[in-house]
Specification:
With 205 residues, the chain is mostly helical. Helices cover 54% and strands 2% of the residues.
């Protein structure tokens, strides 16, 4: 009876996880930035891979208009996807540490590396979200000197759509077992059936 391929040696597994995280984040960023309101097909396919349900078309169109986004998806959609990536990465890191507790614990040879990687996963949504915002946010209008810059900042702060961006309630994570929606951000146990909202094999390879 086959037991499957042998597990990777711990250092190799950590390298593979780091490379997977780099490549997956780059894939999502690139696709998100290349998407527009009229080319949502590939982006929505990616959302479905993550068991994320896109918002209704009319609300989505209003969101694009409110943020003045000629290119790129609304930032909350990017953040929801990164939340799933962070969860998958944390699951894989936990599996690596469980398989080699001596070397990956606090006093192990790989403990510090695992700690840095876990910290990166915890901050992934904020870091990747901030990078995305900086990339797709429409540029400010030039001209007028320093005084006019501050004057515009004071008068436009309240109406700048990016100043009050909210990340919640744009896309919904669905339970792969019963289809119930995620009830709270960063909660990955279904409140209806008590199963995990998604399984690792259902997401990215």
């Amino acid at each position: 009876m086959s037991l499957g391929p042998p597990p990777l040696p711990t250092p190799t597994a950590l390298v593979a996880l780091e490379r997977w995280l780099d490549a997956t984040c780059a894939e999502v960023q690139q696709l998100a930035q290349a998407t527009s309101l009229h080319s949502l097909g590939p982006w929505d396919a990616l959302l479905h891979r993550c068991h994320l349900v896109p918002p209704p078309a009319d609300l989505r169109a209003a969101r694009f208009a409110a943020l003045a986004l000629p290119q790129g998806v609304p930032p909350e959609e990017l953040r929801a996807t990164m939340q799933v990536i962070a969860r998958l990465g944390a699951q894989r890191l936990t599996a690596i540490q469980t398989a080699a507790p001596q070397s990956t614990g606090h006093h192990g040879a790989l403990g510090a590396r695992c700690g840095v990687l876990r910290s990166r996963l915890l901050a992934l949504v904020d870091v990747q979200g901030a990078h995305y915002d900086k990339t797709v946010r429409p540029p400010t209008r030039p001209g007028g000197g320093l005084g006019s810059i501050f004057a515009r900042a004071r008068t436009s702060a309240a109406v700048d759509p990016w100043a009050s961006v909210r990340w919640q309630s744009a896309v919904t994570l669905e339970c792969v077992s019963c289809g119930a929606p995620q009830e709270a951000a960063l909660e990955f146990t279904c409140q209806r059936c008590r199963n995990v909202l998604f399984r690792e094999e259902d997401g990215w390879d």
